[in-house]
Each structure stands twice: as structure tokens, then as C-alpha cells.
Amino acid sequence: MPKRVDRIVLDNSDIIIKNWLKIVSENRQNDYTSSISDELFQSTNREFVNVIFDSLGNGGGLTTELESFSERLVNLGWPLSYLTDGLQTFRRVTIDFVLSQHDQIDTDFFSIILDRVDTWVDPIINKLVNEYSGSWEHTVSLQRVALQELSAPLIPVMRNITIMPLIGTIDTERAKQIMENLLDGVIKHNAEVVLIDITGVPVVDTMVAHHIIQAAEAVRLIGSTCILVGIRPEIAQTIVNLGIDLGKFPTKSSLRKGFETALELTGRTIHREKKQETIVEDIMNQLSKG
User: Fold this and answer.
1) Is residue 220 part of a domain?
2) CATH code where residue 183 lies
3) Distance between CA 256 and CA 13 in Å, rounded?
4) What digits encode the pLDDT tens for the residues 61-112?
5) What is the pTM assigned to this prediction?
6) In the chain, which residues have pLDDT < 50?
7) Which of 93, 165, 201, 252 could form a disulfide with 258 if both were Cys (CB 3.0 to 4.6 A apart)?
8) Could you give the number of structural domains in the chain?
């Protein structure tokens, strides 16, 4: 009997695929795929149901085609529920079709059909969930690494001068990343002065200040100077109220002032040219005096 069910399904795959595509398209109006173009949606559905039948033809399970299909959906950002819902719909469509081919159906025959279809669909769902989850976790892991690298960048702006702009909240994990990037960057870029810009840090509490002080002290120990810039009035008031001592390294209210200090510390001087209007005005004054 199980082989007979297999033969009915495989011999009538075109009808089952047609019924499956119809139901999936009808359900699309109220689900997450409504924003996807019709062409992409239809082509994805056809590929999906074809790889399902390829899997059934090979005895069930996760074939190379089905595995590649799931990986591609992960990269495209399609949710796992698209796969599981599609397989559940395939289960219902297949059972309904097999039952429609028989006039008389008893409990034993119905049970055989359910068990046979379950032996196809359940292993595919289980393996797809594992495969999809593994691919998703790998993608999230790569994104987490990229975000960590971007969360504490050290930017060389001039020979021996680097800047680390910080944006957002600073927790213990991010503080560790800041410390590592800071020390590695100072050595890599041979930086004499590092400017830590906290303009984009919304709150500076005792913990944040402690992490910044630790980072500045670590920079000092390897022979460089750390300048804390971007101290807004409200942050300055908070630091004073908390009794935090930032006297061990320079602080400036803006990045421009901090950069000027960095130039001085690295033996450079700033020459400001007069504006053209000022030069013309000086000439006119000299002519009037003459």
C-alpha cells in the first residue's frame, strides 16, 4: 500500500504542483510575501515544489538541490516560515489528492496515507530547519563581527594622529572591543596621539567613564597620548557630579580643538591665512594713510 501511495503522488505530480501553487498564491495576500514581486514569487514557488518532488523521488530527505535552495533563501532574507508553511501546504494538498482518487476510504487506509506522507514531509522539515538555522546563525555571526569592527573604528587622519569616533551606548562587551581596537590601532598606525570622540555617546555614567579612563591609561602605557573630545556641557556636569577624575589626560569640548592640540603635541604648528577680504581691507587702509 505505501508504494501504491508513492506511485499515485509521483505519477500525478503536475496536478499536485498546480493545486499547491494555487493555494500558496491565495495565501500570499495576507502574509510576508505580499511585498515580493509576482515574478520572483512564482519562480521561487515553482523551484520549491520541484525540489520537494526531487527529494521524494530520492527517498525523501535533504537533497543537494533543496539544501542550495534553502541557503539561497537565507541570503535573500526569506523567513523560515515560508519553507515550513509551504511543506505543510504540500502535505495537505497531497493527502487530499490521494483521498480523492478512492471512492471508499476506511480508517486504516486513511492512516496509511497520513503515515506515508508524513514520512516524506517530516524529515524534510526537520532537516531544513536545522540547515536554515545553521545558515542563519552563520550569517548573524558574520554580521555581529562586522558590527563589532564598525562599533569602535580607529581612523588614521594624519601621520601619528588617529581618531576613534564612538556612537551609541557603551557596555562592557563594547568597551572590551574599544580597548582591543585602540591598542592594536595605535601600534599599527604608529600613533603618537589618539582622539576619542564621544560626541555621539548619549550618556556618560560611572561605568562608561571608567572604561574610557582604562582605555586612555592603556594608550599612555604604550607611549601615546589620549585626548578625550566631544564633551558636551551636560556630560561635563554629569562627570563633575559623579566625582569622576579625568585629569590624567587632556579633554576638549570639540574635535577641532582636540585636533589642534594633537598637532601641537606632534610638533606641528597651525598657520592661519588671512581671508581675501581682510587683505584687501589692509591694503585700502595703507593707501588711505599714504
Assistant:
1) yes
2) 3.30.750.24
3) 71
4) 567 777 787 777 777 777 777 778 888 888 888 888 888 887 766 677 778 7
5) 0.47
6) 290
7) 252
8) 2
